[in-house]
Protein backbone atom coordinates (compact mmCIF):
# COMPACT_ATOMS: atom_id res chain seq x y z
CA UNK A 1 0.00 0.00 0.00
CA UNK A 2 1.39 3.40 -0.99
CA UNK A 3 -0.02 6.80 -0.14
CA UNK A 4 0.55 10.34 -1.29
CA UNK A 5 -0.94 13.79 -1.67
CA UNK A 6 -0.59 17.24 -3.08
CA UNK A 7 1.33 19.90 -1.15
CA UNK A 8 -1.70 21.21 0.76
CA UNK A 9 -3.38 17.83 1.31
CA UNK A 10 -6.63 18.68 -0.48
CA UNK A 11 -6.00 15.76 -2.87
CA UNK A 12 -4.68 12.46 -1.54
CA UNK A 13 -4.42 8.99 -3.00
CA UNK A 14 -3.75 5.38 -2.13
CA UNK A 15 -2.24 2.76 -4.43
CA UNK A 16 -3.12 -0.81 -3.45
CA UNK A 17 -0.27 -2.47 -5.35
CA UNK A 18 3.51 -2.36 -5.53
CA UNK A 19 4.74 0.61 -7.56
CA UNK A 20 6.23 -0.03 -10.98
CA UNK A 21 9.67 1.40 -11.66
CA UNK A 22 9.18 5.05 -12.64
CA UNK A 23 10.34 6.80 -15.77
CA UNK A 24 11.59 10.34 -16.26
CA UNK A 25 9.98 12.11 -19.21
CA UNK A 26 11.99 14.92 -20.77
CA UNK A 27 9.46 15.97 -23.44
CA UNK A 28 8.66 19.65 -23.85
CA UNK A 29 5.14 19.32 -22.40
CA UNK A 30 6.35 17.57 -19.23
CA UNK A 31 9.17 20.08 -18.80
CA UNK A 32 6.79 23.04 -19.24
CA UNK A 33 4.25 21.51 -16.85
CA UNK A 34 6.65 20.56 -14.08
CA UNK A 35 9.44 23.09 -14.49
CA UNK A 36 12.00 20.35 -15.14
CA UNK A 37 11.40 16.74 -16.17
CA UNK A 38 8.45 14.62 -15.00
CA UNK A 39 9.14 11.46 -12.99
CA UNK A 40 6.10 9.22 -12.62
CA UNK A 41 4.89 5.66 -12.30
CA UNK A 42 1.94 4.05 -14.06
CA UNK A 43 -0.80 2.77 -11.75
CA UNK A 44 -3.75 0.63 -12.82
CA UNK A 45 -7.00 2.49 -12.26
CA UNK A 46 -8.37 -0.42 -10.24
CA UNK A 47 -5.46 -0.05 -7.77
CA UNK A 48 -5.90 3.71 -7.31
CA UNK A 49 -8.20 5.45 -4.83
CA UNK A 50 -8.32 9.26 -4.86
CA UNK A 51 -9.74 11.49 -2.12
CA UNK A 52 -10.53 15.12 -2.79
CA UNK A 53 -11.32 14.61 -6.47
CA UNK A 54 -13.37 17.82 -6.40
CA UNK A 55 -10.04 19.68 -6.00
CA UNK A 56 -8.49 18.16 -9.13
CA UNK A 57 -8.49 20.34 -12.22
CA UNK A 58 -7.76 18.75 -15.56
CA UNK A 59 -5.88 20.27 -18.46
CA UNK A 60 -6.26 18.53 -21.84
CA UNK A 61 -2.65 18.86 -23.00
CA UNK A 62 -3.16 16.80 -26.16
CA UNK A 63 -6.00 14.89 -27.81
CA UNK A 64 -4.89 11.72 -25.99
CA UNK A 65 -3.84 12.95 -22.53
CA UNK A 66 -5.07 15.16 -19.72
CA UNK A 67 -2.97 16.36 -16.80
CA UNK A 68 -4.38 16.73 -13.29
CA UNK A 69 -3.37 19.24 -10.64
CA UNK A 70 -4.70 20.47 -7.30
CA UNK A 71 -6.82 23.60 -7.64
CA UNK A 72 -5.70 24.84 -4.21
CA UNK A 73 -1.90 24.49 -4.19
CA UNK A 74 -1.20 23.76 -7.87
CA UNK A 75 0.64 20.47 -7.27
CA UNK A 76 1.02 18.47 -10.48
CA UNK A 77 -0.23 14.98 -9.74
CA UNK A 78 -1.56 12.98 -12.68
CA UNK A 79 -0.86 12.29 -16.35
CA UNK A 80 -4.02 10.55 -17.49
CA UNK A 81 -4.65 8.94 -20.88
CA UNK A 82 -8.37 8.04 -20.58
CA UNK A 83 -8.03 5.38 -23.30
CA UNK A 84 -5.60 3.35 -21.14
CA UNK A 85 -6.19 1.27 -18.02
CA UNK A 86 -3.52 3.19 -16.08
CA UNK A 87 -2.73 6.72 -15.03
CA UNK A 88 0.71 8.09 -14.21
CA UNK A 89 1.27 9.60 -10.78
CA UNK A 90 4.07 12.04 -9.97
CA UNK A 91 6.76 10.36 -7.90
CA UNK A 92 7.24 13.48 -5.81
CA UNK A 93 3.65 13.25 -4.59
CA UNK A 94 4.19 9.86 -2.91
CA UNK A 95 4.93 9.50 0.78
CA UNK A 96 8.17 7.64 1.37
CA UNK A 97 9.32 4.98 1.13
CA UNK A 98 8.25 4.27 -2.45
CA UNK A 99 10.27 1.02 -2.62
CA UNK A 100 11.26 1.71 -6.23
CA UNK A 101 13.96 3.43 -8.27
CA UNK A 102 13.98 5.36 -11.52
CA UNK A 103 14.18 2.93 -14.44
CA UNK A 104 14.53 4.90 -17.70
CA UNK A 105 14.63 8.37 -19.26
CA UNK A 106 12.20 8.94 -22.14
CA UNK A 107 11.93 11.61 -24.85
CA UNK A 108 15.53 12.58 -24.17
CA UNK A 109 15.90 14.18 -27.61
CA UNK A 110 13.61 16.92 -26.26
CA UNK A 111 15.46 17.41 -22.95
CA UNK A 112 16.45 20.87 -21.76
CA UNK A 113 19.86 22.17 -22.77
CA UNK A 114 20.67 23.23 -19.20
CA UNK A 115 21.27 19.73 -17.79
CA UNK A 116 22.91 16.42 -18.63
CA UNK A 117 21.61 12.93 -17.98
CA UNK A 118 24.54 11.09 -16.46
CA UNK A 119 23.04 8.45 -14.16
CA UNK A 120 23.72 5.53 -16.53
CA UNK A 121 20.06 4.59 -16.96
CA UNK A 122 18.69 3.73 -20.40
CA UNK A 123 17.61 6.67 -22.55
CA UNK A 124 14.99 6.68 -25.28
Question: Would you give an account of this structure?
Answer:
The chain has one helix spanning 28-34; strands spanning 2-5, 12-15, 23-25, 38-44, 48-51, 56-62, 65-70, 76-80, 86-90, 104-106. The termini are far apart. The model has no long low-confidence stretch (mean pLDDT 97). The chain contains one helix and ten strands; from the N terminus they run E-E-E-H-E-E-E-E-E-E-E. By secondary structure, the protein is mainly beta. Strand 6 (56-62) and strand 7 form a beta hairpin.
How many E strands?
A: 10
Judging from the principal axes of the Cα atoms, what is the shape?
globular
Structural class: mainly beta
CA distance, first residue to last residue: 30 Å
Topology:
Blueprint: E1 2-5, E2 12-15, E3 23-25, H1 28-34, E4 38-44, E5 48-51, E6 56-62, E7 65-70, E8 76-80, E9 86-90, E10 104-106
Parallel strand pairs: 3-10
Antiparallel strand pairs: 1-2, 2-5, 3-4, 4-9, 6-7, 7-8, 8-9
Descriptors:
three-stranded antiparallel beta sheet; 1 helix; 10 strands; seven-stranded mixed beta sheet; globular
Task: Briefly summarize what is shown.
The protein contains one helix and ten strands, in the order βββαβββββββ. With 124 residues, the protein is mainly beta.
Amino acid sequence: MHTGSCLCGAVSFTVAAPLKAPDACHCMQCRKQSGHYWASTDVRRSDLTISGEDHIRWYQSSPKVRRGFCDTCGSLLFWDPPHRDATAIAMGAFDQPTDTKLNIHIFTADKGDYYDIADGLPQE
